[in-house]
Design goal:
4 copies of one chain form a homotetramer.
Chain A: H1 2-23, E1 38-40, E2 43-45, E3 51-55, H2 62-74, E4 79-81, H3 99-112, E5 115-119, H4 126-132, E6 135-138, H5 146-153, E7 159-162, H6 169-181, E8 187-191, H7 209-216, E9 221-224, H8 225-229, H9 235-244, E10 249-253, H10 271-284
Parallel strand pairs in A: 3-10, 4-5, 5-6, 6-7, 7-8, 8-9, 9-10
Antiparallel strand pairs in A: 1-2
Helix pairs in contact in A: 2-3, 5-6, 9-10
Chain lengths: 289, 289, 289, 289
């Protein structure tokens, strides 16, 4: 019918406009077809070889951090993650060691030739953070902390931006656009699961976000399997799925003794489990950085 | 069976522990049975008489703000809301007038004897904000901006805390606990809808959160009907429902000419619609402040 | 800009087409402006006076059903609900008394002059059901059981259609359209909460659905507060909110001794609590049928 | 503290009981450690070699079905899917060819030596269905159509059970348990995406469900990438991810000319795209049945 025809024309026009609008964004692959590669030391994120970013949820001590760093270095990986400023639901939970934690991370990382990824939660901490951190993580709860996005946009330090727990893929892209439009092109997108009704996992890993973000943006895309799952027993299949779907790498929480961890005890894996994880993942993808 | 009996005992024990833990919170009604009343000038929020907080989504100009303020004062209401720092999905959208907007709000509010509610998005803006604002709003995207929560916790200015768009009621309470535990007891909880699959409304107003928060905490509870609905045509029934469910008041966006508004054009109502809204709401609840 | 103007034109055109499409539906108020009133005996649902439909989750025995029916009649209410065919997550849970349950319901209802609402789950049970039931309930899990919808559409018995637990308001309207388009105009829509991430309640009552359904359709709209809440302590404020939002009535589960109920033990209220519920609800709305 | 210790004991006890309860289910891997393999002709689903189930959303004509079947056979695949009874949101949408569609499917499938998968929506259609269909599909909307589950449980025909669009993994297992407990052990679980707030995809593929279902049950697990995505451009990465996560196979909708398809026009792929899909998928997994 004529009516259906008009409807299709209108819908197509709208979609086209929407697409043109999105294509104009700095994050858009239409605007910059080649992949952005974020280089940190010798590690190249988004350069074709997947990265594994491992480390404890929270930096708790020098010994704990060193134990994890040693295993990371043992596998030839170049990055360590660890939380010094911790976003915790309750004010009475462990809030992280703060700057002291950053110092431990830096010292241990330097010992093993690793680069440091750590979350910063507020603009006021950026000045000190850039002295210790190689990649600034913006956590899920701060994906739309626009003041923070603008501030890291004014830096040149790479930014690992996590998807908010109820953010749409479109909002995620716009959050990255805040950073790029303020001058910092070194943004790494990280899918970490979204909040749904399903409670078998802590969050629902939105695996479809990986190919969509790879198509629509030129930025590297990682998957944080630990926060997505919230349980240890499915981390390996999720990591395999992430790489199979085209992710540029995987984040995973590792702790020498998860049962006494000060945060995320349920989802961190111990050192031996991490060794097995790496061994089995190599069957899926041969090389990591 | 024995097994089922043990299960009930275990479950009951866990629930009891959970309850004891929650009862120990500063926000908990178990700890402070009497209602907290947040007094701002002559307005008492949580004092038994519902409040209506109206105003434009964004402060756009002195004339626009004045037009709304006049109608608010006309109805004997004591509060005006207006955004000066605007959290916007895209960096290319109108970001608010900033401090200039706060000054306009203050000047217009003083002209009509109103108190000012306005959102602050980052700790760095608090110093200037407290000079112009009577109630600091923490928006949904910042409900777990813990650095910001701690900072407003160190002030005595009342805080209107909005529920995050995917926050559980429990997380909402803990966010308020951050503020109380840092010393500021003047917190107003505001339900503004949660993000669900339903797209007929911008968010899904979780009306059940109202009686639950009233039972479990001693804090005033408001409902922001404009952000919940994202459309004008159901604001009145939602406001009636909110008050019927026990809310201490309602927030609503009002603009002299919504069609040219710089933000939230779809959900703001014009001045005449607001007058009708107030008239009809009075049939549901006789008095407002 | 021209582009933005075209976008608005396209969007408006699409919206208009969508509206015209929806206005053409049999359920649409645009097509039939006056309210549909479903009459069952002397009870008129949708006729301006709210109805309260109470009764046990499951019919368990004649004595249990009689005890509830007596209290219903005591309050001058004309309807009793009770489950004979029970949709249960596990095959090992109590599946209802089946036809035996319908017979008990009928007998007890006749004793007190009540009309019977009971769920039917499959077309094969309709023949026997219509002998005992005055209003056939289609449960949330069967909202899109299209074979069942078509079959009840071929009957003249009124149908109480519950919203699916992840159904959009639009899908809900189309489910009703299945019934109307097969010839049965006597449909009562019932909002019973949708599934979200929030776990403080069993489901999230979508209170906005009430005014939207009242605006867009001519059918009566009820709210099932028991399944929405999944807990007893907020049923009264939810019922008040439902009526304030414009609902034509409320469904609530009542059991003489909820602690031994064979289903939904957590959310049913006992007889005395029901008496208090009715007393307090009368302050919100003076008369019920 | 003592309190925290007790809490852990209680929580562990509850979890243990829950686990014991689930381990007792017929679907549970604890009860039957070895994988269930559903054999249909020479195709073995769950036997280690992944299956690809392709075919049109709806059977529209003999020619259309034949065109798809030829390409399926060309790739050495043994199964064709096609809808004859279609669950459609609107009663005015194409409802499928019904029995006529089943006959076309059977005839075409026999021509190419394929086995037939087709959805049955109501118990009344089972008698005729078993004459034409090799695997009965229970769609997402009927996952908790318990009467239908019981009826297919009484057959020996294999059942492909799709996860409901808002079903938890636990509810999904219980739905399968209905079938097994009524006597039919040949159940294939199919993840097809769940409904969330994200609109970039039709549903959110819950990739975590794959390893969880493989661990907790002994049943084969497939992934329907077409309904999960609702768009064509990410089907290949989703299929790769599904297999990498441990799925026993993938379902995908194929149509000779999707633009004129009577249903799901947006997500079906044409024959050439399907050929490329198969070619590229073979780099991820070498053999399919």
């Amino acid at each position: 019918t004529i009516r259906a025809l008009f409807k299709q024309i209108f819908a197509a026009s709208l979609k086209l406009q929407q697409k043109q609008h999105e294509d104009a964004l700095l994050v858009s692959r239409a605007r910059k077809p080649e992949d952005t590669v974020v280089a940190v030391g010798s590690v190249r994120i988004g350069g074709g070889t997947p990265v594994i970013i491992a480390g404890p949820c929270s930096v708790e001590s020098e010994a704990q951090t060193d134990a994890v760093a040693r295993v990371i270095a043992e596998h030839g990986l170049g990055l360590i993650r660890g939380g010094a400023f911790k976003p915790r639901t309750s004010p009475y939970d462990f809030q992280g060691l703060g700057v002291e934690g950053l110092k431990i991370l830096r010292e241990v990382a330097d010992r093993y030739g690793l680069k440091v990824v750590s979350e910063i939660m507020t603009p006021g901490d950026l000045d000190v953070a850039v002295r210790y951190v190689d990649i600034i993580q913006i956590g899920a709860r701060n994906m739309q902390n626009f003041a923070l996005l603008k501030e890291v946009g004014a830096l040149s330090t790479p930014v690992l931006l996590k998807r908010g727990m109820a953010a749409t893929i479109e909002e995620f892209k716009f959050a990255a656009e805040y950073i790029l439009s303020h001058g910092n092109p070194n943004v790494i997108l990280t899918e970490r699961g979204i909040r749904t009704y399903e409670k078998a996992t802590r969050n629902t890993l939105d695996i479809s976000a990986v190919p969509i973000l790879k198509q629509e943006t030129h930025l590297p895309v990682l998957v944080d399997v630990s926060h997505a799952a919230g349980r240890r027993d499915i981390l390996l299949p999720l990591a395999k799925a992430a790489l199979a779907a085209g992710a540029d790498g995987v984040m995973i929480e590792v702790h020498p003794d998860p049962s006494v961890a000060l945060s995320d005890a349920q989802q961190q894996i111990d050192l031996d489990t991490f060794r097995r994880f790496m061994a089995e993942l190599k069957t899926a993808a041969p090389a990591f950085v």
